[in-house]
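Sample entry was shown:

___
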Amino acid sequence: MAEHDEGFVLTTVDLITNFVRQKMVAPVIDSKPVQFGVNWARKSAIWPMTFGLACCAIEMMATGAGRFDIDRFGAGVFRPSPRQSDLIIIAGTVTLKMGPVVRRVYDQMPEPKWAIAMGACASTGGPFDSYSTMQGVDRTIPVDVYIPGCPPRPEALLYGLMRLQDIIMREAPSAYIFESDGTVHRQRSFDGDDETPAIADSAKDQAEAAA
C-alpha cells in the first residue's frame, strides 16, 4: 500500500510539474524577445568538435587560422571533448567501420547540438562508391547543413556555418528542455524556399516515424 501511495504521489507531482513547464514556462521561453536572446547567444558561441577524418580537415584547419578566422563568427573554440562541444563537423570520408564511432561521439555531445557534413565524401560518399565507404554520414547521424565540394574551400565552410546560424535562430529553445522523448523537430527550410505543405507534412511524418 505504501509503494502504491508513493507512486501515486510521484505521478501526481510529475503531472503538475509537466503542466507548469509546458503551459506556463515554455510559452515564456518561446516568446519572441526571450527566444531571440537565447538563440542569438547560442549562434554566437558555437564550440565545434576537434574532429577530422580526411583531407577536408585541412580546409577546416585553414578556416580556423588567421587568414579566414572563424572566430569572427563565434565558432573558433574547438574543443577536444564531445562533452564540451555543440557542433560536429564531419570533415572527410566516413567508412563503415568509422560510422559507429561517429555515432558514439555524436551521442556524447550535450543538447543542443548540430552537425555539418563538410565535403562530397561526408555528404554522399564522394567518388568512393566501394564496399567500405559509407554513402553519406546522414546514415548514422542527423545532419543540419551539407557543404558540397571536394574539398570545399574555407569560404564554403564559413557560408555553411552562417546557414547553420540561420537554423539556430529559428529554433524553439523550450524544445531542448521540455521534450520528454528527447526528440527535437527542427525547421530546415529557409525563407523564400519553394516547399509545398504536402512535402513539408510528408517530411515531418517521416521524421516522426523514424523517431
